[in-house]
Amino acid sequence: MAAEEAAPLALNYIPEVVLKKRKNNEESAIRRKLQLQERVKRRKSEKFAIKKPEQFIRVEEVEKKKMVGPNRPQFVLFGSSIVQMSYNVGGWGAMLADLYSRKADIVLRGYSGWNSRMALQILDQVFPKDAAVQPSLVILYFGGNDSTNPHPSGLGGHVPLPEYIENMKKMILHIKGLSDKTRIICLGSPPVNEAKITEIFGTAFDDQARTNEGLCKYNKALIDLCEEMDVKAVDLFTAFQGKDDWAGSCFIDGIHLSSDGSQVVLEEILRVLKRAEWEPSLYWLTMTPEFSEDSPYYVVGPDGKNTFNISGHICVWQRHLLNIE
Fold first, then answer.
1. Keywords assigned by UniProt (predicted)?
2. CA distance 165 to 175
3. pLDDT tens-digit series, residues 263-302
């Protein structure tokens, strides 16, 4: 008789290899759970640990050592595309950095396409109140995108005027609270060349158009807010129109600034800095260049006996090159 057939497997039979794999999976899951609990526990203990005063001092000293020293005054340019593109060749941000070389560090925080609503959401990240070094000056610009006509979909950059003003007020208060020596200059929205915009972009953005009528309203509202809050402001809408052929010379595409447009912005900012009764002064000609002491290693002067300290004379050349009065 043939060998007896193997007995059929029970319905609840689970192969040994499956049982072994299941056990390994369960053990791995338990280990991962314990590791996660340990990480959470460690983070909580670190977060809520009470530091002694000397520990705070050590942390601040470490943070300062991370910076390239010595520490100079810091000027932060915060805004939308008018700010982001200010470091282009002939841009007003680049010219500021040139003027303030050896005097202040110009920090660019420009975000093309942004409105005041977006800026408010990341304000604490750009200007943390617990930073080891706070800016001496913030040049703030939002409004051009806010002022565009509302798109039928509800999307787009438009921010209603009352909300725009409230957003700017919150930003100003936050920046004022960074330190007793942090100063602010708000830039109003410059006008645009509407015909040039249509020439370059066609009718693609007609339903969210940027118009001088809208820009004028937002510019005026910001200037009024700054006067109310005792904050320095630049009325770019008016300043641009004081220049001959402003519509043809101040823009590269009807919206964004050419070198001529940037020159207007630079001159208006410098005018505010020169007139401001701030202590210390932040006007470039009154600030002392870093490491400005005389040295026997400078170029020898015409008398053949003394060296020529060139640091102060750079200012004369800069004024000539940038056509600054």
1. Hydrolase
2. 15
3. 999 999 999 999 999 999 999 999 988 888 888 888 898 8
Q: Is 80 a catalytic residue?
A: yes
Please state whether the peptide bond connecting residue 70 to the residue before it is cis, i.e. omega within 30 degrees of 0. Answer: yes
Is 189 known to be catalytic? Answer: no
User: In terms of DSSP H, where are the helices of 177-275?
Assistant: 194-201, 212-229, 236-241, 246-249, 259-275
The ranges assigned to domains in the chain are: 68-286, 292-325
- Determine which one of 249, 253, 259, 260 is catalytic: 253
Which tokens belong to 171? 């930003």
CA quadruple 184, 189, 190, 196: dihedral sign: positive
Q: How many CA atoms lie within 13 A of 83 on its CB side?
A: 29
DSSP string, 91-122: -HHHHHHHHTTTT-EEEEEE-TT--HHHHHHT
Q: Which two tokens mark 61?
A: 């000293």
Residue 262 annotated in active site: no
Choose the catalytic residue: 86, 146, 147, 256: 256
What does the block give as tokens for 64? 């300062």
List pLDDT tens digits, range 152-209: 999 999 999 999 999 999 999 999 999 999 999 999 999 999 999 999 998 888 888 9
Q: How far is CA 152 from CA 84, 156, 205, 207, 224, in A?
A: 28, 9, 12, 7, 30
